[in-house]
Amino acid sequence: MASVISGIAASNGVAIAKVFRLENMELRIEKKEVQDTEAEVQRLEQAIQTSMSELEKIKEHANKELGEDKAAIFAAHLLVLNDPELINPVKDRIRSDKLNAEYCLNETATMFITLFEQMDNEYMKERAADIRDVIKRVHAHLLGVQLSNPSLISEEVVVIAEDLTPSDTAQLNRKFVKGFATDIGGRTSHSAIMARSMEIPAVVGTKQITKQVENGTLLIIDGLTGEVIIDPTPETVAQYEQKKKEYESQREEWAKLVHEKTLTTDEVHVELAANIGTPEDVNGVLKNGAEGIGLYRTEFLYMGRDQLPTEEEQFEAYKSVLERMEEKPVVVRTLDIGGDKELPYLHLPKELNPFLGFRAVRLCLEEQGIFREQLRALLRASVYGNLKIMFPMIATLEEFRQAKAILLEEKAALQEKGVSISEQIELGIMVEIPSTAVLADQFAQEVDFFSIGTNDLIQYTMAADRMNERVSYLYQPYNPSILRLINMVIKAAHQEGKWVGMCGEMAGDEIAIPILLGLGLDEFSMSASSVLPARSQIRKWSMTDAQKLAEQALTLKTAEEVQALVLKSVKV
Fold first, then answer.
1. Which stretches of 139-226 are assigned E, i.e. beta strand?
2. Average pLDDT along the chain, 572 residues, taken 10 residues at a time
3. Which residues contact 500 (CB under 8 A, 6 or more apart)?
4. Of 540, 454, 464, residue with least CA distance to 503
5. What is the DSSP-derived secondary structure letter of residue 146?
6. Contact 520/495 with Cβ under 8 angstroms?
7. Can you give the pLDDT at residue 447?
8. How far is residue 129's CA from residue 31's CA, in Å, rounded to a whole number?
């Protein structure tokens, strides 16, 4: 008899196929005494070397199939195996206690994993999963056990697992794996992000899927609602086949809008842009018909490596993106490290609340060598396209003025050397701190544009860590307080003849889009795969109707009332 399990909708679409269980193989680690400790150390080194060779191949595959930013996780995995703070204590223990490599590795790795898991930060918890994934691979080689290999799947299936490690997900063959469901995970877990990149339906965080299904069971994964239907009846299968068909048909309709402008029914144009992390992501931007790049997250250039990128490496990356976008606007955010994004090689001090700490522009204004190098690379690349630069995490006018002064110093120094620099570079800021939104009328007199970063603006306004599940109910993009702050920023900018974009998740949210349209947002920037659905939605609205809706939303008291107001419309 059919049963339904609910989880978190992690990647859109519907998949219907038989189950392939990806078993979380338990490796039995025993404590054994050894006589020849140097031979044991050598055995450990050999297992690490073999694991690194495998990870290099997985990284290469992920780079080709998923893009450089998704492959960066495997560069980080390789760094784990090169980390003397992890590996040296294992070797020392083998030598001092005369114990086997498996046991010493397990003891040391468990200590690191526990440390990361106890941190009240989703990003750091994900790092624990990374270490576990890497160490399991080394253990398998030490024990002579063959790990399950998802790349060997050769028939159409839906994969179920307790969780999918990054290396599992990167090896999935899109031709055969039609979707997956897991016991654990959230929308920001590696498996969810990769599923969206691969454009396969996924439901995560079901808590119990592995306990309820066996290999070969027919399963429906509804990545639109977060439901998994086990052993469906023929009638249910037919119903979901129809839903799948409708969704595919909807995607085909959206595809027709690739070369269309984003116009309301009364011919008002707004710009639909995409967010990217690496030059490879430009493929998705062009494929989905985005009119520009509203956020280039440059920190990916700095992550997954053991030293800072050179000025030349940065220049080549920025130049590549600008050239491929052919004069379409490219908004580059300067280095935004700190909070949930760390660079181990910078050796920054641990902070009690890194989201409110030494990060983004605060770090750049103190570590000016890093900042100046990035600005030089951007200025040199500016002649290859339509570059706009924005500073993140600006809280005061003094910070903006200081960052701008450094940029102008670097520009003058380059020009003195005869380097060509575009004279059309617009300079803006991220609005993600309430103090900046409240003072937007003053900022608008000095910046060329604003880009509202709603992910942080919401968590700072509501004083609720967006990574903390216990306060996740306070992450409310439709809360009237957030809408009023956004309205304040847009009005202040327009008063000074400046434009406003938005590059947080809210920009691609179908409930928020008509309100933002009515508030007068000039540029919506989102994940590339959200561009066409957003364009389709905006083309159903007149600016007059959207303005009325926005005016009404600003008078409401709760997020629920705002959501209900929008859902009354047939245009969503």
1. 157-161, 177-182, 202-204, 218-222
2. 85 92 78 93 93 85 70 79 86 93 90 71 64 86 77 82 76 84 78 76 90 91 94 94 94 93 96 90 91 92 82 96 97 84 71 77 93 98 98 97 98 97 97 97 98 92 75 87 98 98 89 97 91 95 97 97 90 54
3. 449, 450, 451, 452, 489, 490, 493, 494, 520, 521, 522, 523
4. 454
5. P
6. no
7. 98
8. 24
Prediction pTM value: 0.73
Which residue out of 139, 141, 190, 364 is catalytically annotated? 190
Sort residue 304 into left (φ over 0), alpha (ψ -120 to 50) or beta: left
**In terms of CATH, what superfamily is 258-567?**
Phosphoenolpyruvate-binding domains (3.20.20.60)
The residue type found at 59 is: K
Q: Based on the residue annotation, tell me whether 190 is a catalytic residue of this protein.
A: yes
Calpha distance 500→487 (Å, rounded): 11
Q: 79 — phi, psi (to 5°)?
A: -65, -35
- Report which DSSP code applies to 303: S
- Catalytic hit among 77, 141, 364, 503: 503
Strands (E), 379-480: 386-391, 426-431, 449-452
CATH superfamily membership of 37-143: PtsI, HPr-binding domain (1.10.274.10)
Query: What pLDDT was estimated at residue 66?
Result: 65
pLDDT of amino acid 144:
84
Nearest Cα neighbor of 553 from 491, 489, 471, 477 is 477
**Homologous superfamily of the 3-24+149-235 domain (CATH):** Phosphohistidine domain (3.50.30.10)
> Strands of 3-6's sheet, edge to edge?
3-6, 227-230, 218-222, 14-21, 157-161, 177-182, 202-204, 8-11
How far apart (Å, rounded) are the C-alpha atoms in residues 277 and 295?
Answer: 8
For the chain, give every domain's residue range.
Answer: 3-24+149-235, 37-143, 258-567
Is 141 catalytic? The answer is no
The number of residues making up the chain comes to: 572
Amino acid 75: pLDDT: 78
